[in-house]
C-alpha cells in the first residue's frame, strides 16, 4: 500500500474544488465518435476539459491510487448515505481510485463522478480531515 497523504497532498488535490465546481464549468469539452459521414460508428468518447485531466493526473501522481483496491466496494461506499462524510483517508483513496480508473471501463465515468458531486464530497471530506490526519 502507498503512503498516507500529507497536508500538502490534500491541499494540492482540494485546490481543484473551486475549479471543478465553478459556475458553468463543463467537465467534457466535446464528445467524439458516434455515427460518422463514412457510415462507421465508433464508440463515443469524451474529450475532457484540461482541469479534469489535471485533477486526475494529480490523483495518479500522488499518494491517492490504491493498487489493491476492490472496485466492487466503491459504488456501495459512494451510495451509502453519510459514508463519504465519515470516511477515513483509506476509504477516500479507494473511492478516488474508483473514480479515476472507472473511465477505463465506461467512457464518461469521470464526468458522472464530477456532476453527481462525488468528487466534491471526497474533496470536502479531505479538507475536514486535513488537520487531524496529516503532518
Comma- or semicolon-separated keywords:
mainly alpha; 52% helix; globular; two-stranded antiparallel sheet; 135 residues; 7% strand
Structure overview:
The protein has 135 residues and is mainly alpha-helical. It has 8 helices and 2 strands, in the order H-H-E-E-H-H-H-H-H-H. The protein has a two-stranded antiparallel sheet. Helix 6 runs antiparallel to helix 8 (118-133). The protein is globular and about 60 Å long.
The main sheet comes to: 2 strands, antiparallel
Low-pLDDT parts are none
N-C termini distance:
19 Å
Q: What gross morphology would you assign?
A: globular
Order of strands, widest sheet: 1-2
Total count of helical runs of at least 4 residues: 8
How do the helices and strands line up, and which of them pair or pack?
Blueprint lengths: L6 H8 L2 H4 L7 E5 L12 E4 L1 H12 L12 H6 L3 H4 L2 H13 L7 H7 L2 H16 L2
Antiparallel strand pairs: 1-2
Précis, in short:
This protein is mainly alpha-helical and 135 residues long. The chain is 52% helix and 7% strand.
